[in-house]
C-alpha cells in the first residue's frame, strides 16, 4: 500500500511542478513594446525597429512606416530559457528602414492579440537630419553622453509682477545608461535687471524622474531666487556646465563585465525669457514705496510714560513675505520738542525657494526735553499683493508719550500735540497770593552814573565792533568759497547714507546689503529715481543727463557691481574698507556735480 502511494507521489510531482510553472507564466505581466536603434539619424543611415513581447501572440499588425522604405523585414526571433526554475520567454519582429527625406516623423502603433486581449505599442518620434559623413560608424562616447545628458532651468513663474519673487531651479537629467563622475561650471548667469539671491545646494540628491517621456535620474545643481527690477521682457542668461561621465562600450573584460570609457560634455540650460508685468497704476497709494508681497506693519514704543532727559525706543517694523530688502520704511513725524537720533536698521530676513520672509525695522531713540504729552501720529504703509493683484494700505495706531517730570517748555507751558494744536500744561505756579503788607524800608541812594560799572557798560559795545567785523569777514569768505561749502555738505550727506554700512564693516553680507541700499537711497533722494528703475543702464543714462562726469559714474557703477559680486565671492575686511571709503568719495563727488 505504501509503495503504491510513493509511486503516485513520484508520478504527480513533475505534473505539479509543470503546473506551477504554467501558472507562474500565466501570472507574468504581459509587455509589448517598440525599440529603436536611434531616434535621430541622417538621411543616408538605416533604422532598426524591433517590436518585442514577453508572451506569444497572434495577428501581429505593424504600423504604417510613413516617410520610410522597408529595406528588410519582418524578421522574427524567439528566445526561451529556464533560470532558477523560472521560465523566460521573448518574441520579436524586426524591420530595417531607410528614410526617404529629412524631417520629423511619428511611428504609429503596432498591435497584437495575446490571450484574447489586444495590446498596442506607444508612438515614437523619429528625426531625420541631413546626410552624415560615416553612416555606418558606431556612436562615440561623446555622442552617447550628448543624447543622455540634459540640463534644464525650471522657472516658477514666466509672467511675474515687478519685484515679485521668481525661483529658478537648475536640474540635470541623467539617463540610466551613463553615470556622472564630476562637473564644473563653465559660464554662470549674471542676472542683469534682477535682484538675485543664491540658495546653496548642500547635498546633491539623485531621484528617479522622467524627461520627455523617458526614465531618467535627476539632480538639483543650483537654486536662485530673482526679483525683477524692471518691467518688460527680461532674459535669464544660460548656465553652462562641463560634465564628466562614464559611458559604457561594447567591450567586456575578462570576467564579462562591461568596460566603460570617460567623456566630458558641455551642457547648457538655455536662456529663458520672463515677461515682467508693471505694477498697476489704478489704485496706487500716494505713499507707495515699492513693497510687493504680503506684509504686516506696526509702530511700537518701549514706554509711553517717562521723565524729561530719559530716553525711549520707537520701532517702525514691517514683517511678512516679499521684497523686504528692496524698499524703504516709512518715517514717523514727531513733535519738534522730542529729540530724535538717526535710526538703527534691524534686518532679520531669510531667503527660501518661495522668496524673502522675515522682518525689517528702524529703531529710533527719542529723548524728550520738556514735560507734557507728545503724540506719535499714525503712519501709513502701502504694498502691492500680487496674489490679489491689489494695493493694501496699513495704518499704525497713534501713540501718546507722557513726559511727567521736567522743565517747562518756553511757550508758556504749552506743548505741540498735533499740527498747530496746543494743550496747556499746568505747572502749579500760575496763581499766587498778593501780599498786603509790603514791608517797605528806606534805602541809601546808589550813585550809578559816573561809576566804573557805568563806563564799562557804556564802552563795551565799542569793544565788540572789531570782533563783529572779523566774524563778518570770515563769514563772507566762507560764503564765497562755494566749492568748500559744497564739499562740507556732500561729506555730511555721504556720512548720513553710509552710517549703516559703516556699522556693518567686518560682516560681509550685512555690509554689502547696507552699502547697496545706501547707494540706492542716495539716487532716490538726488535724482528721484524709482525702485523699479534700478538697472545699471538706466542709472548711467540719468547720470549722463545730469552732467555727472563719466569717471564718477563708472566708480558708482563699479560699487554696485561689487555689491552684487559679494553674494557669490568672499570679500576681505580690507576690500570692504576700501569700498566704504570709495563710496564716501563717490557720493561726495557726485553731490557736488549734481
How would you portray this structure in words?
This protein is α+β, with helices and mostly antiparallel strands and 594 residues long. The protein has four domains: 20-129, Immunoglobulin-like (Sandwich), CATH 2.60.40; 141-276; 297-424, Immunoglobulin-like (Sandwich), CATH 2.60.40; 482-593, Up-down Bundle (Four Helix Bundle (Hemerythrin (Met), subunit A)). The strands form ten sheets. Strands 11, 12, 14, 15 and 16 form a five-stranded antiparallel sheet that branches. Helix 6 (508-527) packs antiparallel against helix 8 (550-565) and helix 8 packs antiparallel against helix 9 (573-593). Keywords: Membrane, Signal, Transmembrane, Transmembrane helix. Pfam families: BatD (PF13584). This is BatD protein. It comes from Croceitalea dokdonensis DOKDO 023.
Amino acid at each position: 500500500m505504501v509503495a503504491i502511494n510513493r509511486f503516485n507521489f513520484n508520478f504527480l510531482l513533475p505534473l505539479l511542478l509543470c503546473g506551477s510553472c504554467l501558472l507562474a507564466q500565466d501570472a507574468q505581466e504581459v509587455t509589448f513594446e517598440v525599440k529603436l536603434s536611434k531616434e535621430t539619424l541622417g538621411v543616408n543611415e538605416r533604422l532598426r525597429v524591433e517590436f518585442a513581447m514577453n508572451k506569444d501572440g497572434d495577428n501581429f499588425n505593424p504600423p504604417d512606416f510613413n516617410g520610410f522604405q522597408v529595406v528588410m523585414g519582418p524578421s522574427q526571433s524567439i528566445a526561451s530559457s529556464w533560470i532558477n526554475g523560472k521560465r523566460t520567454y521573448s518574441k520579436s519582429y524586426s524591420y530595417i528602414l531607410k528614410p526617404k527625406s529629412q524631417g520629423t516623423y511619428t511611428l504609429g502603433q503596432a498591435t497584437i492579440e495575446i490571450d484574447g486581449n489586444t495590446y498596442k505599442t506607444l508612438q515614437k518620434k523619429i528625426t531625420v537630419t541631413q546626410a552624415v559623413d560615416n553612416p555606418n560608424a558606431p556612436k562615440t562616447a561623446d555622442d552617447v553622453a550628448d543624447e543622455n545628458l540634459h540640463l534644464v532651468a525650471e522657472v516658477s513663474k514666466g509672467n511675474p509682477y515687478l519685484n515679485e519673487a521668481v525661483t529658478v531651479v537648475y536640474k540635470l537629467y541623467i539617463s540610466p545608461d551613463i553615470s556622472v563622475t564630476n562637473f564644473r561650471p563653465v559660464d554662470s548667469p549674471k542676472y542683469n535687471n534682477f535682484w538675485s539671491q543664491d540658495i546653496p545646494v548642500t547635498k546633491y540628491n539623485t531621484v528617479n524622474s522622467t524627461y520627455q517621456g523617458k526614465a531618467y535620474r535627476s539632480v538639483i545643481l543650483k537654486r536662485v531666487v530673482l526679483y525683477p527690477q524692471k518691467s518688460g521682457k527680461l532674459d535669464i542668461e544660460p548656465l553652462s556646465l562641463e560634465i564628466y561621465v562614464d559611458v559604457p562600450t561594447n567591450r567586456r573584460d575578462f570576467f564579462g563585465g562591461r568596460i566603460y570609457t570617460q567623456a566630458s560634455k558641455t551642457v547648457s540650460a538655455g536662456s529663458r525669457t520672463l515677461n515682467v508685468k508693471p505694477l498697476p497704476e489704478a489704485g496706487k497709494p500716494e505713499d507707495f514705496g515699492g513693497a510687493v508681497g504680503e506684509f504686516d506693519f506696526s509702530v511700537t514704543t518701549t514706554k509711553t510714560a517717562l521723565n524729561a532727559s530719559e530716553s525711549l525706543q520707537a520701532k517702525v517694523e514691517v514683517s511678512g513675505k516679499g521684497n523686504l530688502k528692496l524698499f524703504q520704511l516709512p518715517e514717523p513725524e514727531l513733535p519738534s520738542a522730542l529729540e530724535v537720533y538717526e535710526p538703527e536698521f534691524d534686518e532679520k530676513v531669510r531667503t527660501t525657494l518661495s522668496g524673502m520672509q522675515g522682518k525689517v525695522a528702524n529703531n529710533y531713540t527719542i529723548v524728550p526735553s520738556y514735560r507734557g504729552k507728545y503724540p506719535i501720529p499714525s503712519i501709513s504703509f502701502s504694498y502691492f499683493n500680487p496674489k490679489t493683484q491689489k494695493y493694501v494700505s496699513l495704518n499704525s495706531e497713534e501713540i501718546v508719550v507722557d513726559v511727567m517730570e521736567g522743565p517747562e517748555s518756553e511757550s508758556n507751558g504749552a506743548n505741540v500735540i498735533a499740527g498747530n494744536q496746543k494743550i496747556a500744561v499746568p505747572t502749579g505756579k500760575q496763581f499766587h497770593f498778593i501780599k498786603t503788607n509790603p514791608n517797605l524800608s528806606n534805602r541809601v541812594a546808589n550813585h550809578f552814573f559816573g561809576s566804573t560799572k557805568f563806563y564799562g557798560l557804556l564802552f563795551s559795545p565799542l569793544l565788540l565792533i572789531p570782533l563783529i567785523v572779523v566774524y563778518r569777514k570770515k563769514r563772507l569768505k566762507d560764503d564765497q568759497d562755494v566749492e568748500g561749502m559744497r564739499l562740507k555738505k556732500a561729506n555730511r550727506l555721504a556720512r548720513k547714507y553710509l552710517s549703516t554700512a559703516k556699522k556693518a564693516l567686518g560682516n560681509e553680507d550685512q555690509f554689502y546689503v547696507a552699502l547697496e541700499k545706501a547707494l540706492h537711497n542716495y539716487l532716490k533722494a538726488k535724482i528721484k529715481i524709482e525702485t523699479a528703475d534700478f538697472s545699471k543702464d538706466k542709472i548711467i543714462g540719468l547720470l549722463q543727463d545730469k552732467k555727472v562726469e563719466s569717471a564718477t559714474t563708472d566708480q558708482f557703477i563699479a560699487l554696485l557691481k561689487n555689491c552684487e559680486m559679494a553674494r557669490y565671492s568672499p570679500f576681505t575686511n580690507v576690500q570692504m574698507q576700501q569700498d566704504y571709503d570709495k563710496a564716501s568719495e563717490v557720493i561726495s563727488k557726485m553731490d557736488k556735480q549734481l
